[in-house]
Amino acid sequence: AAGVIQSPRHLIKEKRETATLKCYPIPRHDTVYWYQQGPGQDPQFLISFYEKMQSDKGSIPDRFSAQQFSDYHSELNMSSLELGDSALYFCASSLLPDSVDTQYFGPGTRLTVL
Amino acid sequence: AQKVTQAQTEISVVEKEDVTLDCVYETRDTTYYLFWYKQPPSGELVFLIRRNSFDEQNEISGRYSWNFQKSTSSFNFTITASQVVDSAVYFCALSEAFDAGNMLTFGGGTRLMVKP
User: Band of the pLDDT at A98, cuts 50, 70, 90?
Assistant: First the structure.
């Protein structure tokens, strides 16, 4: 079965640079979530989109922005990168009717900021 | 606000032992969903189970079983006859049904090490 695709899988950036992470949800899934997992920590919710509209916002820094496109893929844009942004970034997708659906996670993008 | 607590940060067992991972949650909603995810050393998050707050039936899937008890706000996970491949970090998570975005709140995770 098709899974969530994330690209790139690994990314190395310098401080103050920008980065763009991409997420392709499972086919027919209309909801996308972004999570950040720091070393040794649990994943923290950043932001979610349903039918191309932002549906919820968590602890996402103002330096980050995201959007969901007409084909349902999503991109997380990160600017003015800081050392503390080094983390594993997960995208998850679900099919959201009227109740909570299971979120299936992609393999993650490991971002290292030097 | 919702909260998930996994008090055991690390557990080490010998292969074939049974092991139980504890999960305690807090929520003000009457309708909510509980999840377990596995994160092996390769890093991906693998979905294991989803339970809604109206279904307190225990579930068994092969060597895995889950015990959901609303009275104690717990959703514990037991691995029977553990194997080395079970070594991973296991996360318990909660989602409230009336949260607009249905975000997951994770516990801190329990690192399970199964030694041969």
Answer: very low
Identify the closest residue of chain A to B38 by CA–CA distance. Answer: A105
The pLDDT, as a whole number, for residue A96 is 67
Which of B34, B52, B102 is the best substitution to test chain A (most A C-beta atoms within 10 A)? Answer: B102
Q: Is the minimum CB–CB distance between A59 and chain B shorter than 8 Å? A: no
Name the residue with higher pLDDT: A102 or B108: B108
* Residue A77, CA distances (Å) to A60, A66, A81 in order: 11, 6, 10
- Å between B81 CA and nearest CA of chain A: 27
> How many whole angstroms separate alpha carbon B16 and alpha carbon B81?
4
Neighbours of B40 (CB within 10 A): 13
Q: What is the mean pLDDT of chain B?
A: 93
